[in-house]
Design brief:
The chain is α/β, with parallel strands linked by helices. The chain has helices spanning about 15-30, 35-40, 50-60, 65-85, 95-105, 120-125, 150-155, 170-180; strands at about 5, 110, 135, 165-170, 185, 200. The structure holds 6-O-phosphono-alpha-D-glucopyranose and magnesium ion. 6-O-phosphono-alpha-D-glucopyranose binds near residues 115 and 137. Belongs to the HAD-like hydrolase superfamily. CbbY/CbbZ/Gph/YieH family. This is Beta-phosphoglucomutase.
C-alpha cells in the first residue's frame, strides 16, 4: 500500500501562498492590472513565468521576453522580501506534526514544490531535515499541472507513483498528482479542488494512518 507522502509547500505547510499573491498583486498593480483572490486560484502551483503570463494575458499586455524576465525577477524580489522574515513560527498549525507523523508511520516523506525558493523556505521553516527528498521547479522541465515534479519526487524516494499520496492546496497541483497516477489529498475548499480524491480543510486534519492497512 502507501509507502510515501509527498507534500506541496506553499499553502500546505506554510501560508507563503498568501505572500505569492501579495507579490503578484503588487507587480500587477504597477502594470495597471488588477487581480483578486479568485483569479489567484489559477496562479497557485503554477511556476513563476507561467503565472506572469496568465497575469499579462489577463491585463491584455504582451511584453517581450527580456521585459517578462525583468518583471518575474521584480516579483521574486517582493516575494523574497516577505519570506526573509520567515521562521518556524510561520509553519501552519499541525504542519510539523503532519511530517513527523508520516515519518512515524514509516512513510518516506517528499517535498514537491514548483517554487525555486522551496529549499530556502524549508530551511527558514526549520523542516528541511524532515524530508527524504526535495524536488522543486528548477529540477524538472515542466511545472504543475504536468506530473513531472511528483514523478521525480517518487523516484527520488524510491517508490512507485501508485505507492504515493500527494498533498496539495492548488488545482494545478491536484492535476499534477492525478496525472502522476497518485492519490490526491486536497487542502482547502472542495469547490476549488473538485478533482481531489479526499478534501480536508487544513493540514492539521491530515490523518494518513486512515489510508494505510491496519
Ligand atoms: C508555488 C506557488 C506558486 C508560485 C510557484 C513558483 O507553486 O504555489 O504561486 O508561482 O511556486 O514559485 P517561485 O518561488 O519559483 O517563483
Ligand atoms: Mg501550494
Amino acid at each position: 500500500h502507501f509507502r510515501a507522502a509527498i507534500f506541496d509547500l506553499d499553502g500546505v505547510l506554510t501560508d507563503s501562498a498568501e505572500e505569492h499573491f501579495l507579490a503578484w498583486q503588487r507587480l500587477a498593480a504597477e502594470l495597471g492590472i488588477s487581480i483578486d483572490r479568485a483569479f489567484n486560484e489559477r496562479l497557485k502551483g503554477v511556476d513563476r513565468m507561467g503565472s506572469l503570463d496568465l497575469i499579462l494575458r489577463h491585463g491584455g499586455l504582451d511584453p517581450d521576453l527580456a521585459e517578462r524576465q525583468r518583471l518575474a525577477a521584480r516579483k521574486n524580489g517582493y516575494y523574497r522580501e516577505a519570506i526573509e522574515a520567515y521562521g518556524p513560527h510561520r509553519l501552519l498549525p499541525g504542519a510539523r506534526r503532519a511530517l513527523v507523523a508520516a515519518r512515524q508511520l514509516g512513510l518516506k516523506v517528499g517535498l514537491a514544490s514548483s517554487s525555486r525558493n522551496a529549499r530556502f523556505l524549508i530551511e527558514r521553516l526549520g523542516i528541511a531535515s524532515l524530508f527524504d527528498a526535495v524536488v522543486d521547479g528548477s529540477d524538472v522541465a515542466r511545472g504543475k499541472p504536468a506530473p513531472d515534479i511528483f514523478l521525480a519526487a517518487a523516484k527520488a524516494l524510491g517508490v512507485e507513483p501508485d505507492e504515493a499520496v500527494g498533498i496539495e492546496d492548488a488545482a494545478a497541483g491536484i492535476a499534477a498528482i492525478r496525472a502522476a497516477g497518485m492519490r490526491a489529498i486536497g487542502i482547502g475548499d472542495p469547490t476549488d479542488l473538485p478533482d481531489a480524491d479526499i478534501i480536508i480543510s487544513t493540514i492539521a486534519r491530515l490523518r494518513l494512518e486512515r489510508y494505510l492497512p491496519a
